[in-house]
Amino acid sequence: MDSSPNYNNYTLDELLDVQNHIDSEQYPERAKEIKLAISNKASDPATKAEMERQQELDKYSTFGPRFWASIIDGIVISVLSAILAYLGTQAGGGIQATLGYIDTMQFAVYSIALHTLYGQTLGKMALDVKVVDHLSEKGISFKQAFLRDCVPVVMLILLLIASLFLPVNQVGETPDWLIYAMMVFGISYFLWHLLEIITMLFNDKNRAMHDFIAGTVVIRT
């Protein structure tokens, strides 16, 4: 005997799943029951509040997409670095050194420029996530884009300054203070990224430390 289940006992997710899989032509009456049950569930204040809460969680659940976006951005930057290195090799001399400095700073320029213009790098565009203002959730300003990357930018500037003290082709004569300074720089850069990940994992909106500094948040588009 074909008896219809009591759909009032189903959750909204279960009802939606049944609706997606039922053959409405073979079971038209049952399809109508499911549609009515979904309508009743959706109009229930408790269910509506739960749906809004889940939508909010999904909107800010960006850790995975941001991770893969960073991989894509890394590939883009690597390609640009390879091009600059090739051009520097062909040019030689002062042009090669200048291109080397540009290569060092290119990620900061890439990130700040694209976040200012679009709220997204190429990686974020591919993964459908976007940086917006934390309060208004509208596009961010140049100042906010810069503040998001201010720590890496400062570290890169310090790296450029330190590189001016490196003797060309005389690695063995590098002063001890410079070696220690470079070690501190490397450790600091690692700790900063670790802090970014920790802060991103332990707040409701997955905001990293740079988001708190700049007043931004990353959302799914």
From TrEMBL:
The keyword Lipid metabolism does not apply. One of its GO terms (cellular component) is plasma membrane. It is a multi-pass membrane protein. It comes from the Bacteria. Residues 60-215 form the RDD domain. It is found in: Cell membrane. The chain crosses the membrane at residues 67-87, 146-166, 178-202. The keyword Cell membrane applies. Its main location: membrane. Keywords: Cell membrane, Membrane, Transmembrane, Transmembrane helix. This is RDD domain-containing protein. It comes from Shewanella gelidii.
